[in-house]
């Protein structure tokens, strides 16, 4: 599935709270990364062996650079984690965009 075929987001309340408490990322900010361009998406093979997870690097409406780990479930994006990009991710994002 690609991002242009997404029918919305499937949020887990615990993840909303976790992302806010741990990383100060609101779920609405994480959603903005999927809409705003440019964005970089790739498989995240090291984090899960039970489901296909992907990572997206992109910008919020306020130009905050976020890294979001997600999976697709029933045509929706299910965000697992959202945080500010680290130095390596910022470098990769700048290089790819």
TrEMBL record:
Give the highest taxon in the source lineage: Bacteria
Q: Which Pfam families match?
A: BrnT_toxin
The family database entries (InterPro entries) matched by this protein are listed as: BrnT_sf, BrnT_toxin
Q: Which Gene3D superfamilies match?
A: Ribonuclease toxin, BrnT, of type II toxin-antitoxin system
Protein name per its UniProtKB record = Toxin
């Amino acid at each position: 599935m690609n991002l242009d075929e997404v029918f919305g987001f499937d949020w887990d309340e615990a993840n909303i709270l976790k992302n806010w408490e741990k990383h100060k990322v609101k779920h609405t900010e994480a959603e903005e990364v999927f809409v705003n361009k440019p964005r970089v998406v790739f498989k995240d093979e090291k984090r899960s062996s039970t489901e296909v997870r992907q990572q997206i690097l992109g910008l919020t409406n306020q130009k905050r650079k976020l890294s979001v780990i997600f999976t697709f479930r029933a045509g929706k994006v299910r965000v697992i984690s959202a945080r500010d990009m680290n130095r390596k991710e910022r470098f990769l994002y700048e290089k790819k965009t």
